């Protein structure tokens, strides 16, 4: 963050309307990907970028890190950051390969 804008940006995050707007942008971006048949597979806070326009004083959210993006829900190479994978993906791969699930998640299930 450029030091000249740091306080302006931090003050924007105190406003509930800004928080709701960023959440709306986040959900809209993910929905657009899903509507086109793509699954990001690594949605987490680190993969959202926020752009600040000092002229309009607005924040715009962008999704980044498309390295694990796949077409369709169930792919043979589905991966995600541990702790951020969707429940659907965890359940699907748990059923498909219990051993692999335990390896990646450190689970010891009886």
Written description of the protein model:
There is one protein chain. This protein is of the alpha+beta class and 110 residues long. It contains four helices and four strands, in the order ααββββαα. Helix 3 (87-96) crosses helix 4 (98-105).
Q: How many β-strand stretches?
A: 4
Provide the low-confidence segments as ranges.
Answer: none
- Report the β-strand fraction as a percent range: 5-15%
The H/E string reads HHEEEEHH
Mean pLDDT: 75
Distance between the termini: 48 Å
**Which secondary-structure class do the elements indicate?**
alpha+beta
Question: What's the tally of helices?
Answer: 4
* Shape field: elongated
How are the strands of the largest sheet arranged? 1-4
Largest sheet: 2 strands, antiparallel
Helix content: 40-55%
Query: From the alpha-carbon coordinates, what is the Rg to the nearest angstrom?
Result: 18 Å
Brief write-up:
This protein is an alpha+beta fold and 110 residues long. Helix content is 44%, strand content 15%. The mean pLDDT is 75.
């Amino acid at each position: 963050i450029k030091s000249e804008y740091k306080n302006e940006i931090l003050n924007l995050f105190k406003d509930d309307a800004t928080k709701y707007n960023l959440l709306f942008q986040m959900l809209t971006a993910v929905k657009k990907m899903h509507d086109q048949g793509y699954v990001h597979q690594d949605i987490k806070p680190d993969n959202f970028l926020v752009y600040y326009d000092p002229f309009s004083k607005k924040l715009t959210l962008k999704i980044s890190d498309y390295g694990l993006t796949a077409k369709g829900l169930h792919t043979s190479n589905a991966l995600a950051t541990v702790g951020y994978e969707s429940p659907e993906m965890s359940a699907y791969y748990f059923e498909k390969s219990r051993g692999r699930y335990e390896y990646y998640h450190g689970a010891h299930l009886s």
